[in-house]
Amino acid sequence: MRKRRPPFRIIADSRGFSMVEAVMVLVIIAILAPIVVSRTSTDTIPLLAEAEILKSNLRYAQIRAMNDTVTWGISIAGATTYTLVRTGYTAPNLSGDNSATHTLTGGVTISSGVGTVLFNEWGTPSTDTPITLSQGGQSSTVTITKNTGYIP
Fold first, then answer.
1. Considering the entire predicted model, what is its pTM?
2. Cα 83 to Cα 72: distance, rounded to the nearest angstrom
3. At a CB cut-off of 8 Å and minimum separation 6, what does 97 contact?
4. Domains annotated on the chain, with CATH
5. What is the average per-residue pLDDT within 76-95?
6. How far from 13 is each of 7, 10, 21, 148, CA to CA, in Å?
7. How far apart are CA 63 and CA 66, in angstroms?
8. Number of helices and strands (H, E) in the chain?
9. What is the mean pLDDT of the chain?
10. Where are the beta strands (DSSP E) in the chain?
């Protein structure tokens, strides 16, 4: 006697997705994509860019100090500018700038850390002062670790 098959049979060798499933995934992605993109803020781009430029300039001064017999550093004299310094000598231009002074752009200001950060021949700074950059209600802090000279 012949065995009867169940009315709903599971096909064991089926592979891949059906066209309906693929279209549904694309529809869900199309709905969620504008939401994700609208939540990405471009307002902080100048702040993040200036923080990276400051880190780069601090590292530049640090490397120059490790390759010289005098100390090098960054002097922050105001809310919108800082200058590369070399003790006893005129400092050369900053990397990527036409002068030893860098002016912050995009409404970014230095809100704390006014002073001079000097690096000795081992690349370690004289102080452990964090430098905070602000733009509107956002801020970014650059800290140089005193004993190691690490700039994250």
1. 0.70
2. 11
3. none
4. 45-142 (3.55.40.10)
5. 87
6. 18, 9, 18, 61
7. 5
8. 2, 7
9. 83
10. 72-76, 81-86, 101-103, 109-112, 115-119, 131-135, 138-142
